[in-house]
TrEMBL record:
Protein name, UniProt field: Uptake [NiFe] hydrogenase, small subunit HyaA
Main location group: other
Claim: Oxidoreductase is one of the keywords in the record: yes
UniProt keyword annotations, A-Z: Oxidoreductase, Signal
Enzyme class: oxidoreductase
Pfam families found in the cross-reference section: NiFe_hyd_SSU_C (PF14720), Oxidored_q6 (PF01058)
Length: 325
């Protein structure tokens, strides 16, 4: 049997809700498949008050062995480093986090806030929030860059706002099978098999991207959201167009730009527009493409776009139009 404890810091609870949407297996099946004993979860457990305090003390003292410590939300350090903005079980949550992390076999940061600080840690960061082992791009965060668990691993990040339920169950299943090693993690300590590709991989608008055909209004089926509507899919690491949301769709599939919610710099506050330089080329380029190559390619691509991509198949009311006439 493996033990799991889930705590929330500066969080909206979105990752818990996402995890509860897991379908195959669902959360109850998942825990029974892997013989997991959930010691406590703020939304799922009945115990409160003194009982929770006793449990946490028993974990810290070693009386109860903890295999996986899952943390959702930021570690709140304010005001003035005291952590008193986020009290839990009689003391600042940050103090529980440090002591529990030190006695856990694995520590998992679920969501962008726990991974990188997310929305609460954005400027001006009034709660002095930070991620478990990163503060935005910088390694360190609350636990420090050299932190390792009893199993010798750093914090395992499952970034996203929220993280997709399958990213959570996949990461946890590897941990529960004792199969996850440091080599499986990318530079931001996320599972490479999940975060090894960009959101663009599998996006049905890829052909429009290749020929630089822009979508100018939200929601339409044709055109790419990169050129005018701020889509970050070509430089955001996530499998959102491969592991679909609700098993059926993604933002870019329904005509909404990717906001880059799995990245350390989320949120960026220019969600719906594309910043461009004086030549009209987007400032932020797709991963791995040089500016010179992109500029040359753009001109050629735009000039050779096939008619069926440039001429709309659907009108503004999203009714099919017969453009062959
Ligand atoms: S930029 Fe966005 S909309 Fe365009 S192909 Fe990439 S992910 Fe899809
Ligand atoms: S499409 Fe982009 S913003 Fe939406 S969930 Fe995926 S990574 Fe996050």
């Amino acid at each position: 049997m493996k033990t799991v404890l889930w705590l929330q810091g500066g969080a909206c609870g979105g990752n818990t809700l996402s995890f509860l949407n897991a379908e195959s297996p669902d959360v109850v099946e998942f825990f029974s498949m892997y013989n997991v004993k959930l010691l406590w979860h703020p939304s799922l457990s009945l115990e409160s008050g003194e009982k929770v305090k006793e449990l946490l003390k028993d974990i810290v003292s070693g009386k109860i062995n903890l295999d996986i410590f899952i943390f959702e939300g930021t570690v709140v350090l304010g005001p003035n480093g005291s952590g008193r903005f986020n009290m839990f079980a009689g003391r600042p949550m940050k103090d529980w986090v440090r002591e529990i992390a030190n006695v856990s076999n694995y520590v998992v940061a679920v969501g962008d806030c726990a991974s990188f600080g997310g929305i609460p840690a954005s400027d001006p960061n009034p709660t002095e929030s930070t991620g478990l082992q990163f503060h935005k791009k910088e390694k360190g965060g609350f636990l420090g860059k050299n932190f390792k668990t009893r199993k010798g691993l750093p914090v395992i990040n499952i970034s996203g706002c929220p993280a997709h339920p399958e990213w959570i169950t996949t990461t946890l299943s590897l941990i529960l099978n004792d199969k996850l090693t440091e080599d499986d993690l990318d530079e931001y300590q996320r599972l490479k098999i999940i975060y090894g590709t960009t959101t663009q991989f599998g996006c049905p608008r890829n052909l429009y991207f290749a020929y630089k055909v822009a979508l100018k209004e939200f929601g339409h089926r044709e055109g790419c959201l990169y050129f005018e509507l701020g889509c970050r899919g070509s430089y955001t690491k996530s499998p959102c167009n491969v592991i679909l949301w609700n098993n059926q769709s993604s933002k870019t599939r329904v005509g909404t730009p990717c906001f880059g919610c799995t990245e350390f710099d989320f949120p960026t506050f220019n969600f719906f527009s594309t910043e461009k330089n004086r030549s009209g080329i987007p400032k932020k380029l797709p991963l791995g493409v040089s500016r010179g190559a992109y500029t040359t390619l753009s001109a050629i691509a735009r000039g050779s776009a096939p008619n069926f991509l440039v001429k709309p198949l659907y009108n503004k009311k999203d009714e099919k139009v017969d453009w062959l006439d």
